[in-house]
Amino acid sequence: MSLTLYFLRHGQTECSRNNFFCGSIDPELTPDGLEMAKAFAAAYSSTPWTAIFCSPMGRAMATAKPLCEAIGIQPELRDGLKEINYGKWEGKTPETVNQEFHDDYIRWLADPAWYAPTGGEMAIAIASRATQVIEEIKQRYSSGNVLIVAHKATIRIMLCSLLGIDVGRFRYRLGCPVGSVSIVEFGSHGPLLKALADRTHLDERLRNLPGT
User: 109 with 48: CB under 8 angstroms?
Assistant: First the structure.
């Protein structure tokens, strides 16, 4: 049996629903976001989980909670799984950021790997801290299913790092809507993407909600 990582993005928040930059701020899940977490637990509670790693941010822990309670596994919290820090852009819409921090915003859109949001983090910094968590998992577990509960940018950056995609393209190459799970299996030829942004565990209403 090989090691398989499941990357679960947290459920809906008001920020994701309204397309606000949301990294270091930590809004609670909406009622629909909680339903997404419960739906994931219902669909995946029969999966034989080896471990669960989770961002310590409240919206990620609330998403992990239904599954953790159902299967009796405590999540292991890692700061490396936190969302990108958007600095002075936190809680603002892209339109507002473009007006207030135009030059920084244009540079970031062009190459977020090496240009940070104003006062925030570059993607290469997230890649470094998140990859450390993945390396820890690989060293501890040679096989089994490990769940990683994290955030939109962080998950996409981890996937880019694993799959050999330029980290600076993370916003333009991979989708990651709320409540989605992506699956990577480590085989003899390295990481293999088995599923990207799957949301079949959510009902049609939850899948079709507005937001990012």
Answer: no
Q: What are phi and psi of 25, to 5 degrees?
A: -70, 155
Report the amino acid identity of residue 178.
V
Residues ≥6 apart with Cβ < 8 Å to 9: 63, 150, 151, 152, 155, 176, 177, 178, 179, 180, 181
To which residue do tokens 């629903």 refer?
17
Radius of gyration of the chain (CA): 16
Element (H, E) at 96: helix 94-100
Of the candidates 61, 76, 67, 65, the residue with the CA atom closest to the CA atom of residue 150: 61
Query: DSSP letters of 165-203?
Result: --GGGHHHH----TT-EEEEEEETTEEEEEEEEE-TTS-
Summarize pLDDT for 11-34 with one digit per residue, the tens.
999 999 999 999 999 999 999 999
pLDDT at res. 71 = 98
> Please, are residues 53 and 27 in contact by the beta-carbon 8 Å criterion?
no
DSSP letter for each residue of 132-168: HHHHHHHHH-SSEEEEEEE-HHHHHHHHHHHHT--GG
| Segment 70-81, tens digit of pLDDT | 999 999 999 999
Backbone angles phi, psi at 83, to 5 degrees: -75, 160
For helices 152-163 and 123-140, give the axis angle rounded to 10 degrees.
70
